[in-house]
Request: fold
Amino acid sequence: MKKNIVLALLTILVVILSLIAGGLAVYVFLNKSEKLEPSPSPSPAAVVEEKEEAVGLANPASVYCKNQGGSLRIEETEGGQRGICVLPEGIECEEWEYFRGTCPPDSAEATPDKAESVAKADEQMFKELFADKYNKPIGDITLTIDENTGTHANGGVKFAGEIGGAWWLMAKSGGDWVIVADGNGTVPCSAIEPYNFPTSMVPECWDEGTGTLVVRQ
Reply:
């Protein structure tokens, strides 16, 4: 009698354990199935937008386009990708051409902030050139610009602690600004001759060889 009871209890225990094991197996299977489900791929539009955003932060041309109110479009070419700046008025320019002011042709006039930035950079460069030439702290230099054509410039300069100032002439040589002449007297003809200064900027010069004042034509 006792043996029958024990056998019955063992049978019930085996059935319970089997049910528990089966339930765990089903739970593990369902849990793995959920994890293996592929996540949805981003739409093509989202990928393009991400590419455009990455390019916009990668170079100053893209940033400049967006700062002017334009939007950036990426085009695939045989040579790779290129950015197209789409301006509010509908004009499209290659982003670097727009940044340089060559597209559209009148873009330089349409972006006075860029011209102002270039003017400030040139002024800083002029001060640095005078600081190097005369071994002066840049903070002691007061400089004015009368005219700057992008290749030739003139104005006045004064150092701290000095009563008078001087005129100066600068020109670009090999893409860099150089001090052509500065002082208080007449501009030497020999100094400006290699740089082709416009006559409106330097109407006359002093010929040291003949000791005469030359009116430039």
User: Anything to note?
Assistant: The CA atoms of residues 22 and 184 lie 103 Å apart. The first strand starts at residue 71 and ends at 77.
